């Protein structure tokens, strides 16, 4: 039975009549659901709703037939309540930064939408706008924002006005600054919940504040504003989530020390965009058609693009620190990439499975190199920075405002498929899309007019998730008619009508099955709803975040000192920013354009130098910028290989491990199609005493960066036997002798055609360290040694064996090598002190390859 007193705000009658979903008056939920005695309407538990409020009382008294209608309503609502148990209780939403731009532009509207969608289903709400702004001023700003909220097209205007009025009354501003303020907020929420006889379901704190404020706020919430037992806490965080891997780790650790992982919702608003939120459901609902298509055998390439016409004016203090890669690629475009590339979970509605599969996709990303990216900067940018950040007129920024990046994945599904990510400011159009272009294997023998229209196998075949804007102007999913007719949920997607002639991605719209949302919804509204419903798969977990930074940080580091190509902006960019890829390298299609303004500082440009040849320790020296150096070395190795194969029928190449040769391996793997791999034997110069599959193993590096990409016969690959009888480098297993015998058996006179060495900062080479008791002289060809840094146990070719080679090349790269390079240039033959100084082939040739950082510092 209903209690006799039931306060109702004005307009309640209309509300009761108008809200019918999901059942008749379902969710107009009196407190009966919670088994409480008082009967405040949960969907309308505004503060002014208390019976002391004269406004409310007036509204209540004036409604004719009120009690009769109410009795019916309450009883029917009770049924609805039973259907919506999980949505019961009071939810407090605290918007931190309530008067800021994001809040004004999207968040309040998103919260209003949440209220429109959910209030009728059962829960009661209170919205707390919070900021540092003093109360009166904050109230004023907030009132204006709330007044400007718009009503969705599908809600009747009168009805919406009513709901807006309720929403405004449920929303209050408060200044939140000190821990005491948070305590007071918590007490107020508790008091209200108690006063209105509700149960607290949970609290959402939306951090729309700069990240430097996160830690303090997080601590205050944790210490003073957590809800009581049985109620949940959700904190919503906005990017940037760090600047690189170390800063992201630090921020994650700070937040992780106060919040549980399940309490954190890191927003990437692109995950709320309708076309992108549709990628997984689309893949799921069209599993059958896509099963055989969504892989490297059929996909030609994937393009993930966000083009903007706006520039960074007014935001340069943020932008100057982040740039386009951190602002868009590291987060939005990478998230999209994982949605396209991840293995589809059996159950796409399981957040846990989706997040897990996403993480696996990150793990398959092949590391980026400097040559994987092109960067640009619109011409007016530096001037904007100078004026906004008060920099001197000599200041020129290196922050990229445009980037194109080529990504590959090392897994069976996607190996060899280029994923192109591109974004930029001040471009010629605003548009975003994901385009999956399929390989076209068909040849149509008849002339074009006899092709079977849109169904022709000869037309391009593609699937496009159109994020928005562009010529189409709305989100859409497009599937070429010559692929298959897709299934999309008809309740939320409808076929696009009209404009059949509009050309998109080389085809008229009529050649696609094209769908657009029945109701366009802003990304923030979608995400706020997902937060409310605890749908974690639309948010970034700590693991995924760190995986993304781990992937992007090396590229960001390698670009830190690059000068981006300048572009004029808008349509004047012409073809200046067009780029093309070859193997794993990406380059602008047009050769280096004239710089429109001088590059920053006095740093020399790569083009200022040619490959320099000189001598070092009386042997030839090749010095160049890193990329040129690697290209030159790879060319020289190929020439040596071709020569050896021509003369002896085979090529014996001994390779070192470590980081310097990685770029060389990649260069050999991707840019050398005529390399005589079938006649090449690969040997290891040294090895760490770890299993061959261990990431620390030199063989593992060789496998990852070279072997898996080239066709060296299995029996020509000679890893060092460091793991015999399930032991690592045990003396009694005689692994070193085994390797020496293998070399003697296969390599004429133990004389390798080419040995690739490096030089450590202590002057070590191979795994021959200063003062090593073995390997620097004497008989043994292969020795066990000790390294001062872990893994300590090593196996190495000896200096005498190295010096038997026909050719030895020493690759030295990076600034850290500068000091040892200087030192070794002066010392004589002192292998005990500097093993590298003992490298002097008996009758072969020694060539040094150094980059300018190592050579010139
Ligand atoms: C934001 C970036 O994340 O995304 C902005 O910080 C960018 O620089 C914006 O303009 C683009 O988002 P949307 O929704 O306008 O495509």
Short summary of the structure?
The chain has 857 residues and is of the alpha/beta class.
Helix content: 25-40%
User: Which class best fits the helix and strand makeup?
Assistant: alpha/beta
Alpha carbon gyration radius: 33 Å
SS strand fraction: 15-25%
Number of strands: 33
Shape: globular
Notes on the structure:
This protein is of the alpha/beta class and 857 residues long. Helices cover 33% and strands 19% of the residues. The chain is built from 24 helices and 33 strands. The strands form 7 sheets. It has a 10-stranded mixed beta sheet with strand order 14-17-13-12-11-7-10-9-8-18. Strands 21-22-33-32-29-23-24-26 form an 8-stranded mixed beta sheet. A 6-stranded parallel beta sheet has the order 3-2-1-4-5-6, with helices on both faces. Strand 19 (579-582) and strand 20 form a beta hairpin. Helix 4 packs across helix 16 (523-532), helix 13 (316-341) crosses helix 17 and helix 14 runs parallel beside helix 17. The radius of gyration is 33 Å and the shape is globular. The protein starts with 11 loop residues before the first helix and ends with a helix.
């Amino acid at each position: 039975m209903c209690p006799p007193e039931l306060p109702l705000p004005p307009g309640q009658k209309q509300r009761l009549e108008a809200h019918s979903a999901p059942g008749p008056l379902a969710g107009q939920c009196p407190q009966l659901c919670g088994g409480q005695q008082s009967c405040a309407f949960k969907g309308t538990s505004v503060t002014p709703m208390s019976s002391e409020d004269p406004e409310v009382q007036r509204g209540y008294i004036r409604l004719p037939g009120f009690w009769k209608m109410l009795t019916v309503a309450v009883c029917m609502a009770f049924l609805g309540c039973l259907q919506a148990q999980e949505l019961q209780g009071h939810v407090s939403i605290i918007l931190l930064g309530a008067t800021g731009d994001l809040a004004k532009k999207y968040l309040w509207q998103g919260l209003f939408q949440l209220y429109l969608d959910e209030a009728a289903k059962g829960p009661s709400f209170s919205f707390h706008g919070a900021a540092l702004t003093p109360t009166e001023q904050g109230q004023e700003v907030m009132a204006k924002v709330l007044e400007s909220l718009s009503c969705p097209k599908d809600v009747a205007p009168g009805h919406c006005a009513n709901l807006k009025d309720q929403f405004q009354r449920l929303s209050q501003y408060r200044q939140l600054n000190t821990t005491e303020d948070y305590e007071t907020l918590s007490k107020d929420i508790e008091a209200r919940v108690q006063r209105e006889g509700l149960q607290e379901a949970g609290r959402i704190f939306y951090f729309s504040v700069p990240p430097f404020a996160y830690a303090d706020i997080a601590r205050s919430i944790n210490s003073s504003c957590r809800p009581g037992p049985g109620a949940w806490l959700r904190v919503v965080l906005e990017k940037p989530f760090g600047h690189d891997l170390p800063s992201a780790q630090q921020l994650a650790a700070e937040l992780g020390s106060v919040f549980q992982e399940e309490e954190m919702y890191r927003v990437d608003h692109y995950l709320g965009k309708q076309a992108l939120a549709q990628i997984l459901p689309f893949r799921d609902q069209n599993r059958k058609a896509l099963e055989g298509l969504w892989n490297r055998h059929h996909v030609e390439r994937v393009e993930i693009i966000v083009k903007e016409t706006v520039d960074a004016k007014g935001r340069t203090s943020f932008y100057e620190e982040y740039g386009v890669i951190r602002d868009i690629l590291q987060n939005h475009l990478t998230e999209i990439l994982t949605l396209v590339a991840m293995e589809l979970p059996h159950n796409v509605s399981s957040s846990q499975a989706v997040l897990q599969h996403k993480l696996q996709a990150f793990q398959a990303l092949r590391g980026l190199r400097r040559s994987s990216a092109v960067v640009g900067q619109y011409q007016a940018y530096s001037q904007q920075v100078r004026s906004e950040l008060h920099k001197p007129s000599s200041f020129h920024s290196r922050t990229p405002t445009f980037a194109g990046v080529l990504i590959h994945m090392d897994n069976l599904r996607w190996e060899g498929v280029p994923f192109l990510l591109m974004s930029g400011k001040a471009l010629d159009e605003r548009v975003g899309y994901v385009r999956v272009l399929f390989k076209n294997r068909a040849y149509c023998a008849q002339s074009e007019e006899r092709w079977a229209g849109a169904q022709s196998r000869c037309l391009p075949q593609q699937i496009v998730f159109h994020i928005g804007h562009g010529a189409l102007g709305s989100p859409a999913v497009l599937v070429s008619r010559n692929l298959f007719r897709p299934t999309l949920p008809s309740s939320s997607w409808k076929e696009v009508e009209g404009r059949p002639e509009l050309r998109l991605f080389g085809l008229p719209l009529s050649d696609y099955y094209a769908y657009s949302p029945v109701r366009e919804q802003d990304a923030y509204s979608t995400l706020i709803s997902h937060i409310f419903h605890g749908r974690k798969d639309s948010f970034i977990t700590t693991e995924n975040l760190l995986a993304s930074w781990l992937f992007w940080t090396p590229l960001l580091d390698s670009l830190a000192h690059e000068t981006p190509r300048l572009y004029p902006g808008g349509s004047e960019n012409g073809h200046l920013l067009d780029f093309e890829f070859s193997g794993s390298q990406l380059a602008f299609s047009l050769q280096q354009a004239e710089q429109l303004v001088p590059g920053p500082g006095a740093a020399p440009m790569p083009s200022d130098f040619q490959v320099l040849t000189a001598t070092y320790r009386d042997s030839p020296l090749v010095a160049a910028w890193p990329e040129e150096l690697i290209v030159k070395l790879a060319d020289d190795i190929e020439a040596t290989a071709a020569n050896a194969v021509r003369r002896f029928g085979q090529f014996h190449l001994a390779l070192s491990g470590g980081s310097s040769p990685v770029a060389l391996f990649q260069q050999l793997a991707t840019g050398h199609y005529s390399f005589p791999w079938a006649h090449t034997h690969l040997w290891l110069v040294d090895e760490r005493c770890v299993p061959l599959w261990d990431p620390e193993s030199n063989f593992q590096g060789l496998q990852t960066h070279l072997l898996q990409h080239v066709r060296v016969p299995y029996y020509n690959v000679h890893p060092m036997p460091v793991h015999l009888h399930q032991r690592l480098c045990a003396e009694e297993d005689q692994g070193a002798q085994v390797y020496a015998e293998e070399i003697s058996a296969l390599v004429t006179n133990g004389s390798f055609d080419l040995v690739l060495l490096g030089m450590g900062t202590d002057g070590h080479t191979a795994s021959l360290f200063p003062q090593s008791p073995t390997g620097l002289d004497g008989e043994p060809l292969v020795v066990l040694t000790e390294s001062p840094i872990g893994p300590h146990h090593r196996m190495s070719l000896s200096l005498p064996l190295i010096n038997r080679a026909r050719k030895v090349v020493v690759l030295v790269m990076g600034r850290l090598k500068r000091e040892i390079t200087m030192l070794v240039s002066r010392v004589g033959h002192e292998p005990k002190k500097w093993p590298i100084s003992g490298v002097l082939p008996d009758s072969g040739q020694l060539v040094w390859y150094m980059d300018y950082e190592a050579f010139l510092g």
